Batch of 2 targets.
Target 1
Amino acid sequence: MSSNQNEGFSLQCPVPRGTHATVQMAHGGGGRVMRNLIEGFFLPAFGSDPAKEPPHDAAVMDVPEGRLAMTTDTFVVSPLFFPGGDIGKLAVYGTVNDLAMAGARPWALSAAFILEEGLPLETLERIVASMRDAALEVGVRIVTGDTKVVDRGKGDGVFINTAGIGVVAPGVQVAPRRVKPGDAVIVSGDLGRHGMAVMSVREGLAFEAELQSDCASLAGLVDTLLEAGADVHCLRDLTRGGLAAALCEIADGAGVGIELDEASIPVSPPVANACELLGLDPLYVANEGRLVVFLPAEAAERTLEIMRSHPAAPQPAVVGTVTETHPGMVQLRTTLGAERIVDLLSGEQMPRIC
Ligand code: MG
């Protein structure tokens, strides 16, 4: 892990364990404080050994043959810990999943932390451990990072940015332009868990215990699909804006229509109940471990079979089809048999959920 050690600041270090230690602004002597933090705290968690490879300004690595994919995302979720996950897990899986959606195998991540003065070090330690575990599970390394501290009241505990690079194997083409009329639209599981799990904690809803975020890596599932030779035209993770936003963007980008069948869209009873209570539509609620696949309809059955064998696709279902008619538009056939247009929302339905 290399790090920008020149500016900003920093944790009070060496990091005292236990008690009520918190993140402090450090005035003067910053270089050593930052070095202690990186060497004593982040490097061990993220698997780098400064004795073997002294820290440098940038990570240098070999990459396998193929094209590089790169993405970045910033995580500001509130609360930091929620049923089924936390900001650290989200910061790793979120970026890993965006790489996977391009058909890339995640190769390396960066992690940058903006810490609010007064943040308990124990909280930071839990978050860093969670990132380490998530990265280990995915098989991706966190190779570089940065830490800044802002004054009390100028942040909200922790914000994390992760960037990632991945490698797209030769021959793999996963992109909206490949979506064609006749493609099947398949989701990997029930929708709306993440958004409703976070909202239930925030709103103090009684059924909070039943609602777990779906926060998970999708890289293994994508790998399995590509390894099986599935002719995947496009993938999209159903994060902010949910299935509705993902499909509207793809319909628009690919210049095709999409017809959805509401009855076939999996939504669990606790999510449906919570949505009804809060006046939300599960189609628009964020997920952090669900994706949509577009591929030729004749491959749908075989794809469902492959997905059913993978833990990251708990309830795969064909939910719609790509059409030539009404290009750029998503239409939903409701459970009552009516047709309605699914449109992008003008505002943010749920702020700070990722
Ligand atoms: Mg995405």
Note: The first strand starts at residue 2 and ends at 3.
Target 2
Amino acid sequence: MARGRVIAVDGPAASGKGTLARRLAAHYRLNFLDTGLLYRAVAARLLGAGGEPHDAVAAEAAALSLDPSDLKRADLREERVSQAASIVAAHQPVRTALLKYQRAVGRTLPGAVLDGRDIGTVVFPDAEAKLFVTASLEVRALRRVKQLREKRNKAIGSRVLAEMKERDARDGSRAVAPLKPADGALVIDTTDLDADEVFHQAVRFIDSKGG
Ligand code: CDP
């Protein structure tokens, strides 16, 4: 059965995984999916309906009724949505509801680069190449502050850092699909690397896999 190439890019918030994944998709002419957006959309839909992110039944209902228009909502990058996304993401039924779509994207020719937290561990454990992109908490918080200011959002460094730390802890310690490097993943610490260096390391690794 024909199936697309899949490259998995995982890592914590603001590690540079999105930048890398988009660039790899363009380089290898593959589709691109930011899977974090799916969890953000579930959270935004739930909050919009007055729901509570800890409520697994309501969160699953939001995931099952997700509509493509939810992925275009203007509030997806708001901090309250980020926190709620990591709360709904800890419910197994929410993850199960989103799995089919993610796999369908990866299996559609010519294939895809997917970025997230569990792409190499759960969604595509048989991906052609797996990358785990990370960086120190301080550098990641600075990057996120810069991104927010570029979008003219007010951002207080210490608060961004504290919120990121909270989300990392939740994503890393949850029982289902916790954030961790997949077996065989190339770990790239981007703390002292620029985007070009990260890209070149990733391409060398992917090409060495015979892709
Ligand atoms: O952009 P940022 O790295 O800050 O976050 P994101 O990738 O948009 O993900 C938002 C939240 O969704 C994360 O904190 C995770 O809790 C969750 N998520 C997940 O559980 N699994 C994924 N494959 C992607 C995101």
Note: The chain has one domain: 5-206.
